[in-house]
Amino acid sequence: MHTRSRSHTALPKGRRETFGAATEDDLLTGEPRQIPSASALSVRTLASRGPIPTLTTLAARRFVENIRTLSSDERLWRYVRVWLKRLPDVVVPKLFIMLQRSCPNLLSHGFITSYFLRGPSVALSSALPGVLKQTIVSVTRNDTLHELCLLGFDKYPDSFFASLVSSLPQLRILVLRGCTQVNVRTAKATASRPFLAKVNLNYTGVTPASLGDILNSCSLLEVLKVAGISSWTDATFAKLLDCLSEAHAVFTNLRNLKLRQLSLSDVSVQPFLARCPNLKRLDVSFTHVRRSPFGTNSIPALEKLTLTSINMPPMDIVTLIAGLPHLQTLALGALGGGGQGSFVAVGNISAMSMTDEVLALLTDRLVVLKDLEKVSLVGNSKLGLTSRGNGALADFVRKAGRRLKQLNLSGLPNLRSGDMCGLMGEASEDPPQLEELSLNHTGVDDEAAPYLSRCSSLVSLSLAGTKITSAGLFPIIDACPKLEQLDLTSCRGIKIADRRRFFDVWEEDWKDT
Predict the structure, then answer these.
(1) Which of 284, 240, 246, 247 is nearest to 266 (CA)?
(2) Given this model, what pLDDT does residue 210 score?
(3) How far apart are CA 145 and CA 135, in angstroms?
(4) Which of 43, 111, 455, 493 lies 20 to 30 Å (CA to CA) from residue 96?
């Protein structure tokens, strides 16, 4: 049995990734996504192939499925509320997140504050209609709170968040993503929480100088995210660098750093990264970086590198990757198409710097990376321009692509079905390991079906804006028993009415025929 796709309230990023959903690494804009997608997503739910869910998870799912019925019976609902009060603290955050996804309109201010602001973590989003200013204030009653996630609260002043953070002495994780008025006062309050291991200040107003207080005070900090802050420039960042130089600061515990969509160049990024010797994950997308972000300093053992839409010379990127033997995730979207701290139209093919010649050299570097699992080349519109069928794209798919678990080749208009022939492999080779494949807005059509059908481990396949038809999709679904998600947005070869229910169409018109 399977179910159709559903829309969900925005949730804290990083808490749960829908398999196949585009991540921020795949977006060709520096702006955060704030509007619902209109994609024609067809979804089916298969029997679980993973670990058996715990009893608490099964019970929580059952409660969420039936909450509307339970709440409509006042006598029964009084009994339910008694048991909600008795829930162990450790279960409360999980149940609250599940309710946010399933029935956000039932979560009133009173309901939230009475039952869900306890436990080790609290996550609230401005997308929840029942969340008021007083709802957030009520979080301070939980003086053992370890994790606080507030998303998109752009109407409350800096002093409000500063007071809130100051009232939570046990914080380990603080996420204030999209709380645009967060600034110096909140940064100072954050610096007073010495146990912090993760701080997310993306799309806030925090200044580089105030960030220095956090870096110097929170010695256990492992994750720092400061993306999309428009006031950050080389001039303002210099104040932070001066502060760090005076303190001789080195951030040995910092593992994950996001500097996405900041107007910073090499003169800022290189000296800062020199103080982060143990980085594992780095994102400098949509910045002014034009050379290796590490300069002449030693390169840490990165596991994830995101360089989307920067103007760094491709050969410098190839050289950099050659020095990253433990790389697991690589995002090289729209190289040459931006680099100004914001979105630049990627339709300008002449601006793109990733060519077939560069991809050939890159492929030679990638094939030796034994841990590599995810690659995104989204939006590099020059790829495939000078060759067809047996060119650099086909060679990349044959040598590197089929070994990956996730591959995004969306936005390559010159990619054709023949370029996917490398998925076939030799007769003696195992099937491709791909679980997620994105070919949105490419030139693939039904001729790609035999190649895609070889990917028997596929869970998610995105073909939006392609020439694929029902005749091509049916054998792919036959050959991919794990496939749960199809993106058929704007596929003119598929009837509009069928795009969101294509698994139903397959069962009705094709399966067992």
Answers:
(1) 284
(2) 95
(3) 15
(4) 43
The string of pLDDT tens digits covering residues 184-213 is 999 999 999 999 999 999 999 999 999 999
pLDDT 10s digits, 152-196 = 999 999 999 999 999 999 999 999 999 999 999 999 999 999 999
Mention every residue, 6+ apart, whose C-beta is less than 8 A from residue 469: 445, 446, 491, 493, 494
Element at 375 (helix H, strand E): strand 374-376
Strands 41-43 and 485-487: antiparallel
Please answer whether residues 391 and 384 qualify as being in contact, where contact means their C-beta atoms are separated by less than 8 angstroms.
yes
Bridge partners, residue 408, by sequence: 376, 438
At position 423, the amino acid (one-letter code) is L
Contacts of 21 (CB under 8 A, 6+ apart): none
Predicted TM-score (pTM) of the model is 0.89
Q: Environment class of residue 239 by beta-carbon count within 10 Å: exposed (0-12), middle (13-18) or buried (19+)?
A: middle
Rounded CA separation 419/398 (Å) = 9
| pLDDT beneath 50, residues of the chain | 1-19, 33-37, 340-346
Measure the CA–CA gap between 403 and 414, rounded to whole angstroms.
Answer: 23
- Of the candidates 198, 174, 172, 173, which has an alpha carbon nearest to the alpha carbon of residue 186? 174
Distance CA 103, CA 465 (A): 32
Closest CA to 383 of 404, 373, 402, 397: 397
445 CB-contact burial (10 Å; exposed 0-12 / middle 13-18 / buried 19+) = middle
DSSP string, 12-45: -TTT---TTPPPGGG-SSSSPP-S-----EEE--
What is the rounded CA–CA span in Å between residue 293 and residue 324?
13
Q: Pick the closest to residue 149 from 128, 131, 175, 177 (CA basis).
A: 175
